[in-house]
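Data card: per-record layout.
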Amino acid sequence: MKVAKLDEMSKGWFIGNFEPSLFKTNAVEVAVKTYKKGDYEGRHHHKIATEYTCIVSGKVRMNGKEYAAGDIIVMQPNDSTDFEALENNTVNVVVKLPGANNDKYEG
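The structure for this 107-residue chain is written out next.
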């Protein structure tokens, strides 16, 4: 058995081609991310990966639309979005397939 701490991972990413990583692979990336109200990420897209974002708790705004716990947002390659946490302790699970390195583009 192996035990790790999420806060020791790179921005919540614990599976993928990161250091550290519990399972180093380019096939997929998995993260659990916690946000404070007002945390913001500018508009971006991926050219290769599909990104699945599951809102576990709290609320977020993506592309001007609000999402809450239980919502799953699927961003296909070249779909773009921004991201804003609307509540403290907002938690998301994010999965990217494939785990394409350097596949994040502004705009």
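Known properties of this structure: The chain has a mean pLDDT of 96. The radius of gyration is 14 Å.

See the next section for split statistics.
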